[in-house]
Amino acid sequence: MKVAISWSGGKDSCLALHRALAQGHEVAYLLTMISRKFHRSGAHGVEARVMTAQAEALGIPMVQPLFNRDTYETKFKATLARFKEQGVMGVVTGDLYLEEMRAWGDRVCREMDVTPLRPLWEQDLEGLYSEFLAAGFEAVVLSADASLMGEGWVGRRLDASFIDDLKALSGVDLMGERGEYHTLVVDGPLFHKRLEIQETGAVLRENRWFLDIRRYALKDKR
After folding, report:
1. What pTM was estimated for this model as a whole?
2. Domain, as residue range, for 24
3. Whether 97 and 166 share a structural domain
4. HSE value, Cβ hemisphere, 13 Å, CA-based, for 55
5. Tens of pLDDT, residue by residue, the chain (222 residues)
6. For the chain, which terminus, N or C, has the lower number of CB atoms within 10 Å?
7. Which residues of 112-136 are buried (b: 16+ CB within 10 A; e: fewer)?
8. Does 20 share its domain with 41?
């Protein structure tokens, strides 16, 4: 099936992309909704320019509709309508278990007459994390809930010790499905180039730590 993927740039959507391709789907577009006010992704707050670089590293076209506070769904649907004209018949998401996300996605897909695809739905969370690492993907923590996680988590690379340390925290979902933390994938088997983060800083905003990516580059893989 020719599909688009609702793309956050993080580990969940990346693993969903990996599985969708393995299942034989043709992924035609990455769809990332961008805040008109902040020029960042609506999902994880990544700068639009960083998302564009990530898409270039993957070699998959990215579409970035601009939305205001009250136009997210309208813009999302309008983009799906354009995708359908290009033969797209399904939408892949990295949803894990939140029923409200599933309900919204099912309704929108039903109204647009496309098929929702959730390759990770209700899978074992620690198993998904292990699969992500075993596949060879690399990611860093992009933001974290300051009431649950300290500044030191931001910018941290995902590895085996990361999940062990998460288990020691109270109230933190292992995959961050409720927004405890968000990630940015920088390399992996689907990447033609590596997204190299070269200069960063940590910023506290509205009780949330953010990784301020000040300088980055795309590097050829050897």
Report:
1. 0.96
2. 2-117
3. no
4. 22
5. 999 999 999 999 999 999 999 999 999 999 999 999 999 998 889 999 999 999 999 999 999 999 998 999 999 999 999 999 999 999 999 999 999 999 999 999 999 999 999 999 999 999 999 999 999 999 999 999 999 999 999 999 999 999 999 999 988 999 999 999 999 999 999 999 999 999 999 999 999 999 999 999 999 987
6. C
7. bebebbbbbeebebeebbebbbeee
8. yes
